[in-house]
Design goal:
globular; 19 strands; single chain; eight-stranded mixed beta sheet
């Protein structure tokens, strides 16, 4: 005889995203039964999943309750979202509630301060320690980077004036596009694999020489620069280059880039300005009709000099520079499904005996819990605010 499911005691509220252009939703209908098995009741703001092709009826059939925005905020113990809550929502939160999302506290520490003052427990998925094996299923940075790398190639192909694959037709032969991807993280490897599947000749570059095997495993060639020495850093990211190393890398890349039709850049460092890889001089050296897609374009800067977030810039030399912006939001169904799985895995970690258990001694929670019981508890965020963080079990 099957065991009865535990009585739900934690209520999770799924918010509709408010950021312009954001089409993702934090929880998709197929994740609702998994949350129920963990003893979690789900409230969904009406219309929250519409842009991701998750209608209200799908949530109701899965066992969630679709309600008004006020009922979500008022009835949920934990609010889940993709992005950070807007100021008007923070003003309505009550002490003891928790908010889970991609809160970017290292670039927006003032948000963390506001949530702490409201007595809200803020949990940010972009602080997940990626070197902890049991955290892999919760890794939203990876799941969304995977989508971004895929979409970046489609964006490049849409703006490129020729075919990606070699085509032999009665009208003649079209040579394949020559694509360079800078950065062999999750987004970069996905971009390489996608471009290769579209028939392009693909080359990958990363300052970490140990990525050569990964680059070649997706069908790309490895670009080696003589000017760069091994650069393995902490947490799976490359260490920051010195000014001299960065200048040497830029110069050598500029010499190489003239032979590529499409360049996709993916180098990012959480909470810091992205490294400048492609200078204006390098862009000038590219062929007319070439396309650059800068996945790192943000308010902090980008990998490509002259890129602007969410804009396409056509240079005087006929090169398109695309500031990619929020690409996962442009593939909302796939991105939402992956993110929803991350949310479910995180909640399974946090919900114990019918309650949300915060334990800052746990290595995963130490990375993702930003505020708790009126205090900014994440040391890196607290340092940005000039205040000491508090740790320990809560």
């Amino acid at each position: 005889m099957s065991q009865p499911e535990p009585e739900p005691t934690v209520t999770v509220g799924v918010l509709k995203e408010t950021m312009p252009g954001e089409q993702r939703v934090a929880v998709v209908p197929e994740s609702v039964p998994a949350l129920a098995r963990a003893g979690v009741r789900v409230l969904v703001e009406s219309g929250a999943g519409a842009a991701a092709w998750c209608p209200d009826g799908g949530y109701e059939r899965a066992g969630a309750k679709v309600v008004s925005p006020d009922e979500v905020v008022g009835g949920a113990d934990v609010l889940v979202a993709v992005g950070a809550p807007p100021p008007e929502l923070i003003a309505r939160l009550r002490a003891g509630q928790a908010v889970i999302g991609m809160l970017r506290p290292l670039t927006e520490p003032e948000l963390a301060q506001k949530l702490a003052r409201a007595g809200v427990t803020a949990i940010s998925l972009d602080g997940l320690p990626r070197t902890v094996s049991r955290a892999q299923s919760m890794d939203a940075l990876t799941s969304q980077a995977n989508v971004a790398g895929y979409k970046a190639v489609l964006v490049a192909a849409d703006h490129f004036g020729r075919f990606f694959p070699m085509l032999i037709t009665a009208a003649g032969t079209s040579r394949p596009a020559n694509v360079l991807v800078l950065g062999a993280g999750v987004a970069g490897l996905q971009a390489m694999g996608t471009a290769r599947r579209l028939g392009a000749v693909v080359t990958g570059y990363d300052i970490r020489p140990e990525t050569r095997e990964q680059i070649e495993s997706v069908g790309a060639r490895f670009l080696r620069l003589a000017s760069i020495t091994p650069t393995e850093g902490e947490g799976g990211y490359a260490r920051a280059l010195t000014a001299e190393e960065q200048a040497a890398q830029q110069a050598e890349l500029a010499a190489q880039m003239a032979r590529f039709d499409v360049v996709i850049t993916t180098a990012q460092v959480p909470g810091r300005r992205p490294p400048l890889l492609v200078t204006a001089e390098a862009v000038k050296g590219m062929q007319v009709g070439s396309v650059l897609v800068d996945l790192a374009a943000s308010s902090l800067g980008g990998n490509v000099e002259g890129s602007v977030t969410d804009q396409t810039v056509l240079t005087g030399d006929g090169v398109r520079i695309i500031g990619a912006g929020n690409l996962p939001a442009q593939v909302p169904t796939a991105a939402s499904t992956a993110y929803s799985h991350n949310i479910v895995a995180l909640l399974a970690e946090l919900v114990r005996d019918g309650a949300l258990k915060i334990d800052l001694a746990d290595e995963i929670q130490a990375g993702v819990v930003v505020t708790h019981q009126g205090t900014v508890v994440h040391p890196a965020v607290a340092a940005l605010l000039g205040s000491p963080a508090e740790g320990g079990s809560r």
